[in-house]
Amino acid sequence: MEATGGSWRIKQDVSGQTTFVIVKGRQISDLGQGLSDYSDWASALELAVTRLSSECRQMAYKIDDLESRSRRCNLRVVGIPERLEGADPVAFMSGFFTEVLSDSLAPSLMKLDRAHCLGPHPTGSPSNRERE
User: Fold this and answer.
1) Which end of the chain, N or C, is more open, meaning fewer C-beta atoms within 10 Å of its C-beta?
2) SS3 of 81, please?
3) pLDDT in tens, 66-88
4) When comparing pLDDT for 101 and 126, which is higher?
């Protein structure tokens, strides 16, 4: 009878181990599927990063090109005494170019958006120092 009881225990142990192995096999299979999903996700992210990096480089090139082109239209006028423009540098420079280039030439060739004084204003009274 002991032999029968012993084999019953062995069968129970084997059955328990089989169940354990089946459960762990399913868990490993689920983990493998999860890893596969994450691998696909990581690959998609790598492609997106590559595409976005390329677009970023193209945009940086375009920005640099646009900045360079916008500077081509700038003029620097040297030799005008400081504070001669008064409160409205745009009106002063429009009048200046109209006077210098003639009435018929200036309005058709230029559009003056802004005028800036370059260089620091001296403190105190206005001077006749020329600006660059």
Assistant:
1) N
2) strand
3) 988 877 777 778 888 777 777 88
4) 101
